[in-house]
Amino acid sequence: MTMHAAEAALIHELPKEAINDLPLRAYGGPVHVVDSDRGLEGAIHRLRTERVLGFDTETRPAFQRGVSYLPALLQLASAEAVWLFHLQRITYPNVLWDLLSDPHHLKVGVSLEYDVKQLQLLSPFEPAGFADLVTLSAPLGYKAAGLRTLAGNLLGFRISKGPKTSNWERLPLSQAQVIYAATDAWVGRELYLKLKAEGDGKG
To answer: Which pLDDT score is estimated for 44?
Structure first.
């Protein structure tokens, strides 16, 4: 892409105040919560029918110095539905970890390097097939790094950050947590498709 095209993209980036004025959207499709080994095989079988999967994780927040937690939830979005995996309710190694090591299935989201490193603390795996939206958006002229900002600029809506600091280890998850977690993974996939369309269009 030429420098002129990159500068044009930057002109269209919305300031934070403008993003706050955008309509709020949330994922409204099917959501499947996997909180035991029993549903794991079927979920991964359905996810493997798609090449591009929206990816995100959620971790219980720590409010004390020196206290930290491992990821509690992993979200994967397909065109069909979103799956939420309770990571502390399944055993390792497993078919979910196999999918995270499969280069033929693209997992897309933001801050993937950190998320992957945290997941490896649960059980070692060799990550493959990950694509960070920040890296993909930069050549097109977008300098925003967060999922919310990218959604505002590329998709024209804002997403809620309300339940971000809730307890993701709780079982069952609240309805607000389910919607929030599913939305983040869904938006990641939508952003990837939008970025790919923009990149292909610019040649």
So the answer is: 98
Q: What is the DSSP letter of 153?
A: H
Tokens of 134: 């920040």
- pLDDT value, residue 31: 98
**How many domains does one find in the chain?**
1
> Taking all residues of the chain, what is their mean pLDDT, rounded to a whole number?
89
Tell the residue number behind the tokens 């409010």, with chain if given. 63
Question: Which residues form the domain of 12?
Answer: 3-202
CB 76 within 8 A of CB 107: yes
pTM for this model (two decimals): 0.90
Residue type, 24: L
DSSP 8-state secondary structure symbol assigned to residue 145: -
Task: Give the span between the Cα atoms of 108 and 2, in whole angstroms.
Answer: 25
Quick one: tokens of 147? 């999922």
What whole-number distance in Å separates Cα of residue 61 and Cα of residue 145?
21
Terminal Cα distance for the chain, rounded: 7
C-alpha 152/C-alpha 24 separation (Å) is 10
CATH of the domain at 182: 3.30.420.10
Are 15 and 150 in contact by the 8 Å Cβ rule? The answer is no
